[in-house]
Amino acid sequence: MSTEVVSDTPASRLTKAVPAHPLAPLSETELTSAAAIIKASWPAHTDLHFKVVTLQEPPKAEVVPYLEAEHNGTQLPSVSRRAFINYYIRNTNKFHEAIVDLQSGRVLHNVLLGPFVHANGDGEEIVRIEKIALEDAGVKDAIAKLELPEGTVVISDPWIYGSDGVNDEDRLYQCFLYMRDPLNSSEADSNHYALPLPISPVITTETMKVIRIDTLPTGPDNTIKPLGKWPIFPANEYIPEHQTLRTDLKPLNVVQPEGASFSVSQEGTSNVLQWQKWKFRVGFNQREGMVLYDVRYDNRSLFYRLSLSDMNIPYADPRHPFHKKSAFDLGDAGAGIMANNLKLGCDCLGSIYYLDAVLSDDKGGVVPMENCVCIHEQDAGIGWKHTNYRTGRAAVARSRELVLQSIITVSNYEYILAFIFNQAGEVDYEIRATGILSTQPIDEGVEVPFGTVVHPGVLAVHHQHIFSLRVDPFLEGQNNRLVYDEAFAMPRSDFNPHGTGYYVKETVVEQSGGYDIDYDNNRTFKIQNVNKRNPVNGKPVAYKIQAPPFQKILSDKDSFNYKRAEFSDHNIYVVKYRDDELYAGGKYTNQSRGGTGVRAWADRKENVKDDDFVLYIQAGINHVPRIEDFPVMPCEILKIHMKPVNFFDKAKSGTGRTTE
Amino acid sequence: MSTEVVSDTPASRLTKAVPAHPLAPLSETELTSAAAIIKASWPAHTDLHFKVVTLQEPPKAEVVPYLEAEHNGTQLPSVSRRAFINYYIRNTNKFHEAIVDLQSGRVLHNVLLGPFVHANGDGEEIVRIEKIALEDAGVKDAIAKLELPEGTVVISDPWIYGSDGVNDEDRLYQCFLYMRDPLNSSEADSNHYALPLPISPVITTETMKVIRIDTLPTGPDNTIKPLGKWPIFPANEYIPEHQTLRTDLKPLNVVQPEGASFSVSQEGTSNVLQWQKWKFRVGFNQREGMVLYDVRYDNRSLFYRLSLSDMNIPYADPRHPFHKKSAFDLGDAGAGIMANNLKLGCDCLGSIYYLDAVLSDDKGGVVPMENCVCIHEQDAGIGWKHTNYRTGRAAVARSRELVLQSIITVSNYEYILAFIFNQAGEVDYEIRATGILSTQPIDEGVEVPFGTVVHPGVLAVHHQHIFSLRVDPFLEGQNNRLVYDEAFAMPRSDFNPHGTGYYVKETVVEQSGGYDIDYDNNRTFKIQNVNKRNPVNGKPVAYKIQAPPFQKILSDKDSFNYKRAEFSDHNIYVVKYRDDELYAGGKYTNQSRGGTGVRAWADRKENVKDDDFVLYIQAGINHVPRIEDFPVMPCEILKIHMKPVNFFDKAKSGTGRTTE
Question: Using omega within 30 degrees of 0 as the cis cutoff, is the peptide bond preceding A321 cis?
């Protein structure tokens, strides 16, 4: 499947000694050096199309002693800095994966991938694809048949092609066409999703040419009607100058006169964040965006690594070509590279601190990512309260939270992604889904059971959003256990004569696999360390996981959708830790075929009891669109909670009381 | 079962013409008049123990025309003001229910209830019970056997007795005894729940005497050990002077320089609240606390009435007397009368408006309830966002919420209860559970599967909290439908050749009954009005219900716990509307036996399709205590959401955009 083409060219002139933390993202110098090392491994003038240049995280076996030394203040071991690189020979389908050592400049690994292994899209490419679709003579002819009003501006939205096993060996883009409001064609921020057109060109990335022009079904079935004069419906804009804005909302300001309570220490490209008793290191990469490392509370380790691993958004319309709409927004695009500059849109209140990052571009250069993570505190209402009714004395503490937020725009849609820490030792991962529905044309008067008409002529198809949060625990040690508690009624007996008793039973998960939360039994998964006991009650220290219910993937088990979205069928996957296994849908999701992600890893059926394991925790929405979701949907909010269970004792004041 | 003792004494001297709104809570004058009318119906010097004097809400058939006239500005019909009264002949078990007409002074209904029908506890009574328990000679003898340190202060927590069918015909209190920290006995706010004692006196309310002293099991089984020298464990205080307070949290202030964006019009005891396009009337009563009436958005009616109906908290320990711990905090005590004065404890930020109320006392007088509801706005993060990646322009709106909050203290425990309205037409009911666990003694070294040792010698038993939100919809009309949507995979076919399609199917609920949310099918209940159609897509206007999963009651179906907690076994109950049916656990929950609440009403199997129905929406927690929950637990938060579905269209700007 792959051919080793490792180069031995030392390329030492490009190498610098980099005293970075082993988990620090690659610096600008490292990024360009890494690309240059790969360029140097090819004949001069070979045009490489870089897809990703990013930190190759060192093996955990090297990092853990480093972190221990760091926290103990002892001599730091040396850990190599390495870069992971994906690239094409430009305008070919020759897709490569490489690892270079940044100190020595040596190429440690450099393989041609494939067949059926394809890279993510990138910004440059997407913009080129948009243009190619619109400049193609065949597409122009098709558009002409619609007899659109004079001056109409047509917009092309390139989509990752998806997989159905039918002629999808090449890396393709399927473009969906829309138009701006013809009465306002010069408005670049016109909501074209309100005016979808029935033409869909397909472009191959090998030649960057249109290879097919699909006509979309617009009726209740899969009949394709010949193109003809296209009905023009009214626009539906979201930009404020097209709204009657509310005037009755008075300002609400969050003021922090003494500034924020957290501190950020910048160590090169790495940021160490401290807030209350929390401390962790923040990274940022092209694919996952924010990554948190070495998360500690009161210097007790909790997590080795936390990140969003991937998400999958399969659509309900089974008709060609819509059946291929099944996006992996991290694997196919990248939560890092799609991150918003958060200063361009008043996204937060209070004292905000922004983090910058630097990512790679398609030519071996860098893309500065300014303000791609914001950090702020927020008040979360009452944290705890008790009133002694005998004395009338109330003791109450508000809950302060620390938020690390990143917002990604993936074409039409937005995800607001946040890690939230509080004073009770809890970590939440919050997802807010907003943005614009991906729309398609529908004939007037037609209703379909797989979508909602959200505007005249506009169908918003039902779709699932399935997110996978990767949790690499380190609960006071590398070897932990996954267990679950369940509550059951006691049978009647002399001990339970009135049928009121119930008990909680703990079960240990022995083997890697996919597991489900059973809400009917209050099944609650916990990460435990049986070698660390609570001094009060002797129970193993633990963190429990509270994840909201979601409908598992609806695509059938033989479908490519199901095979590819390897995390989509269970609330929780647990796998034995292996270096380089980070992405629940597999390393290469674009037009993937399954078998390279978390389901495959779980199928190794390895021991995970008192071992080093990784959890993938899923959350999701089955989004059945409403009129109220268009043109921009109000946030739908999901939260995964991780909470201490017998981890703290009163002496350590873990519940974080700030009191009156 | 009941004897009519209606009096015809007009008692007109006590009556005043009250031009109150039909849904306004009783005024001070009305409360005292109502009690006086009842007193006058009895021979002079009869000592009545009033349990409740409250508004007898008029029949909906009278209120609806009134509300229509009110909103249309036409002549208001006359609606009688009536009071509902529960009382005992003091120091007897003669429990009465009465209705009086406040205009005429006539007693319309006055019946002796029972047997097996008992009143709620009240504050005066609870304080008396506390004392009686501690002053009883037998209890003193029992305490003496514990050989507690000199000067120890013992505290008595009276508990509603519960039902098990064993000698519980009389209305009883079961007291649980605790001690203050013996090293700090003068501290009235010492957390006595950290020092539970094994003695539990039982008191009958008929004679107000101790009738039995139970010794509590403290081992792993139901063995009762003779009382002897009691081990003294360390204290565990929650008051701030006993904590090392955090010093590293900087102030975060919410400032509303122009004040709040809502307005409150006080109409006697009734308050009309307007915020953005929302408008509703706020009531407050002894049992439910906050009640919202006639909830409208942009003058389109949504709900006739919203309130918390009841809650049930059954405990897992099956051993006598703990098996009877199954509280109904509304029916047994009252969310209104237990409400905190919210100015005594800095509970909110920003511009706060407080509502007062007046409730009845046990002697026919009144209890002023100052600041029992607070109203404020809060920022809820980003409401929606979209960035046009082609132009880089971001449009973003924050989400502003309006919160009506009430906090109740039920002995050891607190509930923070809030209705939350937002700009997207959504209504949330939020419950925050906090306060102190109800504890009991446990021997050192013992572990039990039905509770957690949270402190040396202290067992916090697992328990369920099951809340029932009563929703009386009026979705643009009195006759609505309850339907549910479910998403199913499409079978493979020519239409769905790749197995990716799915569809949503709507099912109409025809008959009253208990229904469950099936998260695996994304089953989503909606309130619909099929006579009002969305102008864009022709779908019936609707509001959907999103309720979190919870484990249904664990007590077995033959248990009194199950029979009494009539709402505890389904996510949703739907019943045909009947006047006076308000309380999901029945009107009289104290030592109740079931058959008088929502399960019984549902069993009438009445039509609810396109009819006037009421929903009871359940949410809950199976609280398996952690060390981190003691001495005061960090809030556990539950939310029930109600969201518009095809109720608004773009023209009405229902999604509430405030934009950049």
Answer: yes
Q: How far apart are CA A284 and CA A156, in angstroms?
A: 30
Contacts of A555 in chain B (CB under 8 A): 489, 499-500, 502
In the structure encoding, which two tokens stand for residue A573, read together? 């996957």
Q: Per the CB < 8 Å rule, is B432 touching A381?
A: yes
Among the three residues A59, A82, A113, which one is the final residue of a domain in this structure? A113
Burial class (CB in 10 A: 0-12, 13-18, 19+), B224: middle
Interfacial A residues in 443-482 facing B (CB < 8 Å)? 447, 449-450, 452-456, 462
- Residue A382 near chain B (CB below 8 Å): yes
Residues in Cβ contact with B295 at an 8 Å cutoff, skipping those fewer than 6 apart? B278, B279, B280, B301, B302, B303, B306, B427
For residue B372, being part of any structural domain is answered with yes
B80 inside 8 A of chain A by CB: no
The pLDDT value given to residue A659: 37
Nearest to A252 among B164, B350, B490 (CB): B350
Domain identity same for A470 and A372: yes
Min mean pLDDT across A116-130, B5-19, B601-615 is at B5-19
One domain, residues A104 and A172:
no
Nearest Cα of chain A lies from the Cα of B356 at a distance, in angstroms, of: 18
CATH number of the domain at B387, please: 2.70.98.20
Residue with tokens 């006598």: B320
Shared domain check, A107 and A191: no
Q: Check which CATH number belongs to the domain holding A108 and give it.
A: 3.10.450.40
Chain B residues touching residue A537 (CB < 8 angstroms): 447, 452-454, 627
Cα dist. A560→A172, A565, A596, B497 in Å?
Answer: 16, 8, 13, 12
Please say whether the beta carbons of A282 and A274 come within 8 A. Answer: no
Closest residue in B to A347 (Cα) is B382
Is B628 close to A562, i.e. CB distance below 8 A?
A: no
Q: Exposure of A560 by Cβ count < 10 A (0-12 exposed, 13-18 middle, 19+ buried)?
A: buried
Considering the domain boundaries, does residue A254 fall inside one? Answer: no
Alpha carbon distance, N-terminus to C-terminus of chain B? 65
Number of independent structural domains in chain A: 3
Which residue in chain B has the smallest CA separation from A523?
B551
Tell me the pLDDT band of A346, cut-offs 50, 70 and 90.
low
Model ipTM value: 0.95
Structural domain of residue A422, as residue ranges?
A: 265-315+326-437+462-652
List the 217-236 stretch of A: residues with Cβ below 8 A of B.
221-222, 236
How many of the other CB atoms lie within 10 Å of CB of B64? 18
- A9-58 residue pLDDT tens: 433 333 344 469 999 999 999 999 999 999 999 999 999 999 999 999 99
Which of the four pLDDT bands, split at 50, 70 and 90, describes residue B345?
low
**β-strand pairing of A199-204 with A95-101:** unpaired
Does A4 lie at the interface with B, CB-CB under 8 angstroms?
Answer: no
If asked whether residues A11 and A139 sit together in one domain, one would say no
Task: Let me know if residue A256 belongs to a domain.
Answer: no
Q: Are residues A195 and A102 in the same domain?
A: no
Confidence band of B4 (pLDDT split at 50, 70, 90): very low
Best mutation site among A342, A385, A417, A521 for testing chain B: the one with the most B CBs within 10 Å?
A385
Pairwise CB contact (< 8 Å): B462 & A504? yes
pLDDT tens digits for range B208-229: 999 999 999 999 999 999 999 9
Residue A258 in domain: no
Residues A270, A227, single domain; the answer is no
Interface contact A323-B501, CB threshold 8 A: yes
The residue of B458, B485, B502 whose CB has the most chain A CBs within 10 angstroms, and thus the best one to mutate to test that interface, is B502
Is the same domain home to A109 and A151?
no
Q: Which residue, of A55, A87, A113, is where some domain finishes?
A: A113
Partner residue facing A345 (CB), from B389, B394, B496: B394
Give the tens place of pLDDT for each residue, A162-213. Answer: 999 998 899 999 999 999 999 999 999 999 999 999 999 999 999 999 999 9
